Amino acid sequence: MKVIVVLSVVAAAVAAPSSFQPRYGYSPAPTYQGPAQYSFDWAVNDAPSGNDFGHEETRNGDNTQGSYYVQLPDGRLQRVTYTVNGGSGYVAEVTYQGEAQYPSYRPAPSYNPAPVYG
């Protein structure tokens, strides 16, 4: 009898309506005061791995200017300087410093030569 009473109480507790009512919907979009303004730069120069690259950018409203560079495996430095002015889109100028250096070619046998018995 006790078991039936306990199970009845548990069933009633589980079936009882909850007072919690979740709120659905989204909050209004935030409003921003004034045009966007920022400036940043960063760089990586790690001699053991040969990594050398970086980026800098400045923005004032619709006018954005910046550049980024990377040390290429052939020894040249590639630099991209760009501007974005209002509706003009992304305008980039790519330059290279230095001259490409490639290792000299040395053919190597792709097999082991047959042994010579004498």
UniProtKB/TrEMBL annotation:
First and last residue of the signal peptide: 1-15
UniProtKB keywords: Cuticle, Signal
Organism domain of life: Eukaryota
Any one GO cellular component localisation term in the record: extracellular matrix
PROSITE patterns in alphabetical order: CHIT_BIND_RR_2 (PS51155)
Molecular function terms from GO: structural constituent of cuticle
Pfam families the record matches: Chitin_bind_4
Name of the protein described by the UniProt record: Pro-resilin-like 37
Species this chain originates from: Homarus americanus (American lobster)
